[in-house]
Design goal:
CATH architecture of the largest domain: Up-down Bundle
CATH class of the largest domain: Mainly Alpha
CATH superfamily of the largest domain: GntR ligand-binding domain-like
Number of domains: 2
Number of strands: 3
Oligomer: single chain
Strand content: under 5%
Order of helices and strands: HEHHEEHHHHHHH
Structural class: mainly alpha
Largest sheet: 3 strands, antiparallel
Radius of gyration: 19 Å
Distance between the termini: 23 Å
Length: about 220
């Protein structure tokens, strides 16, 4: 459907992202900026910028002289990346100072905001990422932070699917609560173990939903 007003880059990005997530663009389908610009009623420039952003986020891929195409979900990508994220966050949590009352309050506020948020998966992802960043903020390791950011960009489309299911979000928030409660009691090792379990459960939930019944789209 054409966008009726002059869009910002974010408007075009959201429109294309919705079409991918709704299955209107199928895995492997070629995406041509000229055709998309005509379909959306905009110039090629915001379309091109949106496609480049979608490539960075892992929804599409670019091949030399062939343009963009929709990436299929990848079981190996899930199995490779989620454990790395868990390992890095657990390592950071194991080494940072004991959390201050202010940090505990900030973590709880982020969880509360996520619980009260509507069903917008993008907003849920934003709050969830803020919670995880706050959890390990004192690590001081900029290399680790950069690597985590890169890995989570790869996982964005899987997290988007996860955040669309309120039951999974509720379970995730309960795991957040348990991690914070362990830190409040001074049970650092328990908190690390719970964080590892949290990432492992997320991975298994996504795998079971997308691949147990042969769904790879």
């Amino acid at each position: 459907m054409p966008i009726s007003r002059k869009p910002l880059r974010a408007d075009v990005h959201k429109e294309l992202l919705d079409l991918i997530l709704q299955g209107k663009f199928t895995p492997g389908q070629r995406l041509k900026d000229t055709e998309l610009a005509l379909q959306l009623g905009v110039s090629r420039t915001p379309v091109r910028e949106a496609l480049l952003r979608l490539e960075r986020e892992g929804f599409i891929s670019a091949q030399l002289h062939q343009g963009f195409s929709v990436k299929p979900l990848s079981e190996s990508e899930i199995r490779d990346v989620y454990p790395l994220v868990g390992l890095l966050e657990c390592s950071a949590l194991d080494e940072i100072p004991d959390p201050s009352p202010a940090k505990i309050e900030q973590l709880n506020q982020l969880s509360h905001a996520m619980r009260q948020e509507g069903a917008d998966p993008l907003r849920r992802i934003e709050l969830d990422e803020a919670w995880h960043r706050t959890l390990i903020a004192e690590s001081g390791n900029q290399h680790l932070a950069r690597i985590l950011d890169d890995l989570k960009r790869i996982l964005f489309r899987y997290e988007y699917a996860f955040m669309q299911v309120s039951q999974w979000v509720t379970e995730s928030l309960e795991e957040h609560r348990a991690i914070v409660a362990s830190l409040e009691r001074g049970k650092r090792r328990e908190a690390v173990r719970l964080l590892d379990t949290h990432w492992d459960r997320t991975m298994k939930t996504i795998l079971s939903t997308n691949f147990e019944k042969g769904n790879t789209a």
